[in-house]
Amino acid sequence: AIINAFSEEDDAKYWDASNQLLPHWLTIVQHAQQHNYESQMLGTLMLQAGRFSTELANYDQAEQLFQQVLEMRIRMLGSEHLEVAEIQNALGYLYHDKNLYDKAQELYQQSLETRKRILGDKAHRGLAESFQNLSVLYKDRALYSQAEQFGKEALSMHKQLYGEVDYHVAS
After folding, report:
1. By Cβ atoms counted within 10 A, which residue in 5, 121, 134, 136 is the most buried?
2. What separation in angstroms does the CA of 32 have from each of 27, 46, 82, 107?
3. Per-residue pLDDT tens for 80-137?
4. For residues 23 and 118, what is the distance between their CA atoms, to the nearest angstrom?
5. pTM of this prediction?
């Protein structure tokens, strides 16, 4: 339940709960690290705490959480895993938010390549997210032809996943 207080979506009803629980989540992470404890659930908690910290613009804390969970997941799952790609993408988003475009691009690209190797051409939410994030990054860098290319890939995948009239397609 403590992890579920974080929402994958920008849902206002979770904002207050997440804000109140964040110090407790960080205490859990600290205690787990002191005892060299690693688990999937702890990794999920760290990833969500990192995402929330990013939204609060607490970038140093978010970066530390993302780096730690990335290292943990690679130890636990190996580097060729969708959860590792998800963390690379989240860390890329953080760097993108900080206008560290080279670092963001490298991580977005690693995430995309891992997802492609694992999923192939299969339509998947994570692949669509990677294409979309790279499209926005290239737009922000005024690299419009690359932005368009990745944007078209994202749109195509969103249509496959959600249909023509879903908000993912409209946005």
Report:
1. 134
2. 9, 11, 24, 27
3. 999 999 999 999 999 999 999 999 999 999 999 999 999 998 999 999 999 999 999 9
4. 35
5. 0.86
Radius of gyration of the chain (CA): 16
CA-CA distance, 141 to 147, in Å (whole number)? 9
**Of residues 78, 130, 74, the one with CA closest to residue 107:** 130
15 in Cβ contact with 52 (< 8 Å):
no
Alpha carbon distance 113, 7 (integer Å): 26
Question: Nearest-CA neighbor of 59 among 100, 3, 9, 89?
Answer: 100
User: Which of 54, 59, 108 is CA-nearest to residue 85?
Assistant: 108
